[in-house]
Write a structure and sequence with these properties.
The complex is a heterodimer. Helix content of chain A is 51%, strand content 13%. Chain A is an alpha/beta fold. A three-stranded parallel beta sheet of chain A has the order 1-2-3. The longest helix of chain A has 16 residues. Chain B is an alpha/beta fold. Chain B starts with 5 loop residues before the first helix and ends in a 9-residue tail after the last strand. Helix content of chain B is 46%, strand content 19%. Classes of the chains: A alpha/beta, B alpha/beta.
């Protein structure tokens, strides 16, 4: 029987309390870097991750879109992303926004 | 030869002394005059009077401030001349105008390697002097004015600056505003971090059209100020400006047709659009629900920072244009401003009341 390991990633503690920017060329805590460092490895390992979103100073749309919508552009389907990544936030509008980025990216 | 008697000899000696003294005086005077002329010749400082009010939204104040900044840039950065800024009459240092001046001064310093060509006469007004001291401007200009910043409305000005999209300092400043509710701080962080991303990606895509022709221009500057139960955050870049970057960003996002359509809808009788109208239309494109969210929602993030706050205000100034968004009595109002002079860059100002009970339902 295959067991799925669930990892918990707190963006504020494990990545940066001050995430900002889209690409790695923009700055040190970009959406592209977060995706490459924390999301892609889990998707490639068939694991599961819970992302804790609240312990940061906030998010710009570029960071969120590149981190999550960018997964679709790398070839992962929205179903695969939803099955692998669970998002947690006290702010429901943040969860909706990320979901929208993933769906929009899938629609092209 | 006639021999002098003792009286004549004494008179002659006295006369010689007098002549010598006169000659010595004449030579000293001449020497002083020459040295003064030489000193003046070596450092021909151009005295540049600062405006009384450092402000950018009202047309008159804006014109005076931009003329002052342009002269400073031309004399120091282009002509490499010594300039003595005379701040004697400076009375009101408003956040947006002061930030633009501060940014220009830092750009000149970075480009020339120092501000050795610039000196200053401090303001007579105590508050204005405290502001310049607190912001480090008097020190940058090597002025030893003894004024100590102590007024509460002066020492609460916070500064951040950088070249990359690294919002660490900005986030720390916003989080340190203890009276600012976390939800508002997060919204402001969203707006500022997106403004920063825009700077990294687009703002310096071409030479700034200010005559200085600096290759590799970069950077952003930010002020945050709490006053009378309001918080103001101003963010500035000295890039090519939104009206210049718009065609490129619209093309990247396949939004050119939508942009043209919205311009036509908003300003049907126009053939040529002002900078203010272009900014207004760009915001409308981002609002359009039919547009995909991939890329380029930065302008909307800037509005989101204040759009659910009663009394919230957003000002976007870019080149010769301005866009103003206010939320009063739960009703948003938008205004477009067109100016004669360019700020040669972009300045965004968020202003919102701090208290919790100003949130309105979105």
């Amino acid at each position: 029987m295959n067991t799925i390991t669930t990892t918990i990633i707190d963006i504020g503690k494990d990545f940066s309390r001050y995430p900002a920017g889209r690409y790695e060329t923009d700055g040190p805590f970009s959406g592209e870097l977060f995706r490459a460092k924390f999301l892609v490895p889990v998707l490639n390992s068939n694991g599961h991750v819970t992302i804790e979103l609240d312990e940061t100073a906030g998010y710009g749309s570029s960071f969120l879109e590149e981190a999550f919508g960018g997964l679709v552009r790398l070839g992962y389907s929205s179903t695969q992303i939803k099955n692998t990544i669970t998002l947690h936030s006290e702010d429901p509008s943040l969860l909706e926004e990320i979901e929208e980025y993933i769906l929009d990216a899938e629609q092209g | 030869m006639r021999l002098l008697n003792s009286d004549d000899r004494i008179a002659w000696i006295r006369l010689s002394h007098k002549r010598n003294k006169r000659e010595k005086k004449r030579l000293e005077k001449k020497k002083n005059k020459q040295s003064h002329t030489r000193r003046k010749g070596a450092t021909p400082s151009f005295v540049l009077k600062s405006p009384e009010i450092f402000e950018l939204i009202g047309s008159v104040n804006r014109k005076l401030l931009l003329e002052f900044i342009e002269k400073l840039r031309n004399k120091v950065l282009i002509q490499k001349r010594r300039v003595r800024i005379d701040f004697s009459n400076a009375k009101r240092m408003v956040v947006c105008g002061t930030l633009l001046f501060f940014s220009e001064l830092h750009r000149i310093e970075r480009e020339l390697g120092s501000l050795n060509l610039v000196s200053c006469i401090p303001p007579k007004d105590e508050t204005a002097a405290q502001v310049l001291q607190h912001l480090g401007i008097l020190k940058m200009l090597k002025n030893s004015c003894p004024v100590i910043p102590k007024r509460s409305d002066v020492i609460n000005w916070k500064i951040a600056s950088g070249e990359l999209t690294d919002a660490t300092k900005v986030g720390q400043i916003l989080e340190a505003e203890s009276r600012l509710p976390q939800t508002k701080a997060k919204k402001l962080y969203r707006g500022v971090s997106e403004a920063m991303t825009n700077v990294s990606q687009h703002a310096y895509m071409d030479l700034r059209n200010d005559g200085a022709e600096i290759i590799g221009d970069k950077g952003w500057w930010m002020f945050c100020r709490e006053e009378d139960n309001h918080i103001s955050v101003a963010f500035c870049d000295l890039g090519v400006g939104i009206p210049i970057t718009l065609p490129k960003t619209m093309e990247e996002n396949n939004e050119e047709n939508m942009f043209k359509l919205i311009l036509y809808k908003l300003f049907p009788d126009k053939k040529k659009y002002s900078d203010g109208e272009l900014i207004r239309a760009a915001i409308e494109v981002k609002r359009s629900r039919t547009q995909k969210r991939h890329r380029g929602k930065g302008l909307l993030d800037m509005i989101k920072a204040i759009e659910t706050t009663q009394g919230g205000r957003l000002v976007i100034l870019s080149n010769k244009g301005g866009y103003l968004y206010n939320l009063n009595n739960s009703k948003p109002s938008e205004d477009v401003k067109n100016y004669k002079d360019s700020i040669f860059g972009t300045l965004i100002l968020w202003s919102l009341p701090i208290s919790r009970n100003t949130e309105v339902k979105s």
